[in-house]
Amino acid sequence: MYDRFAAVPKTPTWSEVVCQRFDLRGKRVLDVGTGSGRSLARLAPHAGALIGVDSEAAMLAVARDNLKRDGLSAARLVAGDAAHLPLAADSVDVVTAITLASLYYCEPTEAFCREAERVTRPGGVVVTVNIAPRWYGGDLAEVVLGMPRSEMEPSEREAALAACGYSWFDYYSVADYGSVENAVATYGFIFGRRVIAHIRENGIRRVRWKTRVHYRSV
Hints:
By secondary structure, this protein is α/β, with parallel strands linked by helices.
């Protein structure tokens, strides 16, 4: 379900936005919280060497299989978490964190920033991609959370990244689920019964998202 939800076509994709803004050609890229390896696969055409870090052994096994299937067996996968990256200082050119769950729930954001910057060479960049504040669930956020968007609180992550000196920009994308039933089976499955009823009642097949990219040069 994770892969099915993530694989829904979005225009533009996060990888298109990131790779247009930041030059990854020939660079050694570390992807933190790489999960099933989908993010590494999307970065591969634009980067040099690839390293994926994840704290879950089961996800690393899935990523290994997926990358092998995609002809990316040279990508290195290692166990570790966002607050304790298992790499030497100044060992990569770029660090990415694509919708890294631990920035929401587990690791202090400051710890991730400290570690990401430690492993990045001078002149490199750290990039995070997350749903923009008050856009959890995209343009159906008010249905998902059951409150007006104006009452939604920004995440603590925003303040922490700002305190760590990160700049940011937002972009909009549209996820096309193709049919109402596919929207129910993917988006609705993630967000629950109330959202499923709303999708069916309104014939929703597309959801607009606002995404925030934070970045800092090292």
